[in-house]
Amino acid sequence: MSIRRNREDYESGDGERPEPGSITAPLDEIHDEDADFDEAPIEDQPYRGEMLGGAAAPVCPGIEPELLRYACFQPGVRLFVIFNLILVSLTIGAFAAGRALHNPGGGWWPGLLAAGFYTIGTLVGLVELLVLLVTVMGYQAAARYFKNALLTPGVVVSSNPLAIVVLAPLGNGTGPEYHGLQRLDLRMLPYHDHAPGTRVPCVSAFVPGIGLDRWVCYQPEPIVWGTGNRAKIDQCFDRLGTEDFDRLDACVSKGLLPRDDDELILLDGLDRQLASLSIREQKEKYPIEAK
User: Fold this and answer.
1) % of the chain surpassing 90 pLDDT
2) Is 287 helix (H, G, I), strand (E, B) or coil?
3) DSSP states of 191-248 as a string?
4) How far apart are CA 53 and CA 34, in angstroms?
5) Separation between Cα atoms, residue 262 and residue 281, nearest integer Å
6) For 28-73, what is each residue's pLDDT tens digit?
7) Is residue 47 within 8 Å of 59, Cβ to Cβ?
8) Architecture of the domain made up of 3-61+149-285
9) Which of 70, 118, 167, 284 has the fewest CB atoms within 10 Å distance of its CB?
């Protein structure tokens, strides 16, 4: 079901507006001629997120991730933090070596080596400043998506190895109603029990593709990556409700389980399987930008 047809139904009174806490409510794509719809009173869309990549989630977490916790669990941020620590260590080591070798009156070659270490330390330090800037910008972008992207239901499907499956809508308003199932393999999952069937609220950012009538895939993150606060996690459960978790449980009970984190099980609006796709191949086939 397209976004535009939904809007026409709302305005004519022929359609029934999706519940605010349901992922069946589509991501709102902005069209200039439909500005009145997007300017609906905030009380009609209490959980709506900010605009992200031309779309807004009808129900979002609305919480800021905790800096240290998110840096520990979010893979991209964690990688940059580790890289920063390595560069800082190299910078300190180079200056320490230069200082140890710097001995006035000790000959020309220790002084030459000390100058070399000081130069290396300075260059690595400059690189570290650039990497730190990129890390800060990357964290801010990731945290914005964590706060404003779509809340989606997840469920533990395996405790050893630890893995969850996440259900999310894939329709982008230009084609039929689609849903998808993706697997997320985890090293750790704090707060939640690891028994299969445990419900896990997640937030998912969507990946667009040129020439496709749906989102290519989505990037799910458990809410507990960003907070361990019980009240905030319960808030996400409350916003999601039980309908979509029940829907996900029904899919899992039918054996609709991605084999790994590269598989996307594409479903129609009635949760019937349409295809099993490779996320990597889909991203190559439908790039974000035209080549």
Assistant:
1) 56
2) coil
3) SS--STT-EEEEEEEEE--TT-SB-SEEEEEEGGGT---HHHHHHHHHHH-SHHHHHH
4) 17
5) 9
6) 443 333 333 344 444 456 788 787 877 788 889 989 999 999 998 9
7) yes
8) Beta Barrel (2.40)
9) 284
User: Each residue of 135-144: pLDDT tens digit?
Assistant: 999 999 999 9
Sheet with 162-169, strands from edge to edge, namely: 217-222, 199-207, 150-159, 162-169, 179-185, 263-267, 273-278
Q: Which residue has the tokens 């200039």?
A: 32
Q: How far is CA 97 from CA 25, 89, 108, 118, in A?
A: 60, 12, 16, 8
Residues 271 and 256: their CA atoms lie apart, in Å, by: 10
Separation between Cα atoms, residue 250 and residue 253, nearest integer Å:
5
SS3 per-residue string spanning 32-74: HHHHHHHCCCHHHCCCCCCCECCEECCCCCCCCCCHHHHHHHC
Please give the model's pTM, rounded to 2 decimal places. 0.77
pLDDT tens readout for residues 216-240: 999 999 999 999 999 999 999 999 9
User: For 19, which DSSP code?
Assistant: P
